[in-house]
Amino acid sequence: MVVTKVKQIKSVNKLAEGLKYIKDGAKTIGTELLDPDLNFPIKIVNGQPVSQLVSANLLVDMDSAFSEMMQLKQLANIEKGRPINNEELSKNDVLAHHVIQSFSPEDNLTPEQVHEIGRKTALELTGGSHQFVIATHLDKGHLHNHIYINSTNSITLNKFRWQKKTKSALEKISDKHADVAGASIIAVKNPFGHKEYAAYRRENSFKLEIKSRLEFLLKHSTSLDDFQDKAKALNLAVDFSGKYAKYKLLDQEQKRNTRDSTLSKKGRYSQEQIRERLAKNEIVHPLEKIKTEYDKLQAERAEDFEKRVKIEPWQVEYETDSGIYLQIQYGIANQGTVKIPNRLIDKQEDGSFDIFIKKSDFFYFINPDNSTSNKFMKGSTLINQLAYESGEYVLTKNPNISKLEQLVKEYNYLVSHNVSDSDQFHDLRDRFIEQIEETQQSLKRLDDKIERLNKIASALEDIHLEKPIDAKAAYQVLEQYSISSEIDPKDIEKQVIEVSVERKGLKDKFDSIVKDFTQYEKLERNAEARRTNQSLYGKIEPKEDLTK
Description:
Elements: E1 2-9, H1 12-22, H2 25-28, E2 42-45, E3 48-51, E4 54-57, H3 65-79, H4 87-90, E5 96-103, H5 111-126, E6 130-137, E7 144-153, H6 164-181, H7 199-219, H8 224-233, E8 236-239, E9 246-249, E10 258-259, H9 260-263, H10 271-278, H11 287-303, E11 307-311, E12 316-320, E13 323-329, E14 335-341, E15 345-347, E16 353-357, E17 362-366, E18 375-378, H12 379-390, E19 395-396, H13 399-416, H14 423-464, H15 471-480, H16 489-537
Antiparallel strand pairs: 1-5, 2-3, 4-6, 5-7, 6-7, 8-9, 9-10, 11-16, 11-19, 12-13, 13-14, 14-17, 15-16, 17-18
């Protein structure tokens, strides 16, 4: 397992002392002669040549690393018109970045492998245009790298800007090379898969998970006391003592409470509305089963997907025990890798991979030549880019399918408990109707999209013919939709197939749901008839049937 830390060096003395410390022979000299291709210094110990695990980038002599780094900074100051050797002006300036990479002994990596991971990490982070010294220390119970990176670029003479996202980029680059070498990496546990994502994204992930647990509790609690007891079972702290209801996840790194007003502008999670909602419930999961049932629901959601695409072996740069790294083009002249974890992959017998992604998933794109291009990308962007490069069809699962499936499960749960005449059942009916209407609208949008794509495809096909039917009309169609005539009609036809498959999946599910809804309405009518009969004739004996 690899762990990275970073320190900024702002003192000339600390830079000199730090470089001297990391190159200390007592910490870096091994017991054997290693791969000569890595150009490790050779030392004689007990009459035998051994390797010292230190190396450098863009430095003539490691022994003069401090002087060479300072000379480059002096040149940068001269070229940019800054004062030279002014301690007052430079005392708070970042002279170098000190990166520490620590590895677990359980990874069983050799010192040479650890050093190479560090060297590749530094090269990728800096684009290879910064001086650095790397030393692998052997004196502790675990192997670890010390890397001193000159903040001055050797080509542009500009400073390496350490921003909020730089630490995340460093960790992702380090994880990639450690993963490829066979080391374990820290598994991140949150809805987005990226612990280091921006603060606002972390906050939003808390909100999403809180809302998920609250929605489950709203369906499976019968009173405020029952609600609070079951919330504890789901590791959700509930505070109804103040003006606002407050919530906090106890099993995640949430530091501050979240008000109900930040979760719903309509007050859905206020104490008052929760009490009103719970009064409608008759059949719920008992306290002892609430955690098991919620975990089951979450597992079903985790297995759900929105888009699927086939990945060919040539698209895979590395395959590791934890996933695959894919080569993708992310914009013009921006090529890099993205990791897909195993939980999103089905490997096929022919060596290809089926990956299942949600649009809301986030992945980290790493450009090995320019770390400033590293960024998070959405699942929808990734899967479409992969499909474009491979020419494979993207199979999209319309989100309304999952919504319909969940409503059917709730419906079946109530029916199985003979609940067909209650506020709980009527509330489900209202949501059922809303979802049917939403699905119908989605089907209409897909129909419109297919019609539009077919119109574009027919115009493109006509233009590309030697004797078009009406080139002028075809160009008018393309202009109307802002489509270039240079686009291959086959690309549009591919989209038609993809959208058509999505529509068929949704339509099939919709048709089956309508049948269930018809059954529900029949149950409701029967229940209403029973209530009416009981009200009108409850104390009257039925008349004798004289027709018999």
